[in-house]
Amino acid sequence: MQVLPIQSGATTKECPPQGRLIVLTGPSGVGKGTLMQALLRRHPELYYSVSVTTRSPRLGEINGKSYYFISRNKFEQLVAQGEFLEWAEFAGNYYGTPREVVLDHIRSGKLVVLEIELEGARQIRATFPSALSIFILPPSFPELENRIRGRAQDSEDAIARRLRRAQAEIEAADEFDIQIVNDDFETALNDIEAALFG
Ligand SMILES: Nc1ncnc2c1ncn2[C@@H]1O[C@H](COP(=O)(O)OP(=O)(O)OP(=O)(O)O)[C@@H](O)[C@H]1O
Ligand SMILES: Nc1nc2c(ncn2[C@@H]2O[C@H](COP(=O)(O)O)[C@@H](O)[C@H]2O)c(=O)[nH]1
């Protein structure tokens, strides 16, 4: 049987060839989460990896669905135990992708989708060369700021930190397999579908 090596951190495992890791990345506020939710509604067969974070829940966010919300101490403990496929600090908080559950779903043949920031996406590209990585771009920087502010869920300080980081993130777009501009939402969603399903 043909096998696909999965390289994840220090370990190398094998799994059947049909599973695949898909990474959606791009600056904060560009619309990754909204696109992801729409994609999951259209394709319930996709497995969405719920991340772990030390950020406080926003209004309406549900533990275990939006994120697993944990303390910094607990997060650092999980890092030391090698529990993350990738992790990064972003705008003052930690974020990470649980390792085993994602590997299990890839092994069982699922398309596993991650919605993560730049540093984590780079880690995945390095450890999973076969992953498909999609970078979502805003139509313009002022529009990105409008979207972050329009979401009205972050403090002024958090918005400033996210915008400061966004410029460098946008400059990294070419590192990834596919670049999609999220101007018209339906067009961007169709472009993601085309990248995933041909
Ligand atoms: N094509 C679009 N046109 C206009 N507004 C959009 C578009 N796509 C998303 N938005 C809006 O932009 C805001 C930010 O979107 P979203 O929260 O999905 O961004 P994000 O990239 O997931 O941010 P973060 O990385 O911080 O979680 C939301 O209010 C969303 O409704
Ligand atoms: N490296 C990782 N980044 C992640 C993960 N889960 C989410 N994110 C990204 O963090 C920022 C901020 O998210 P927010 O919910 O606080 O707005 C955003 O770019 C997310 O895509 C993860 O597991 N690893």
From TrEMBL:
Name the reaction it catalyses: GMP + ATP = GDP + ADP
What cellular component GO annotations does this protein have?
A: cytosol
SMART domains, alphabetically? Answer: GuKc (SM00072)
The alphabetical list of record keywords is: ATP-binding, Cytoplasm, Kinase, Nucleotide-binding, Transferase
Location within or outside the cell? Cytoplasm
PANTHER family (alphabetical): GUANYLATE KINASE (PTHR23117:SF13), GUANYLATE KINASE-RELATED (PTHR23117)
**Name of a matching Pfam family:** Guanylate_kin
Of which family is this protein a member?
Belongs to the guanylate kinase family.
EC numbers on record: 2.7.4.8
> What does the function comment of this entry state?
Essential for recycling GMP and indirectly, cGMP.
Give this protein's Gene Ontology molecular function annotations: ATP binding; GMP kinase activity
Official protein name in the record = Guanylate kinase
Ranges of residues in domain Guanylate kinase-like = 19-197
Which HAMAP family would you find in this protein's record? Guanylate_kinase
Alphabetized CDD domains for the sequence: GMPK (cd00071)
What does the entry list as the binding residues for ATP? G26, P27, S28, G29, V30, G31, K32, G33
The EC class name is: transferase
User: InterPro entries in the record, alphabetically?
Assistant: GK/Ca_channel_bsu, Guanylate_kin-like_dom, Guanylate_kinase, Guanylate_kinase_CS, P-loop_NTPase
Is the keyword Nucleotide-binding assigned to this protein? yes
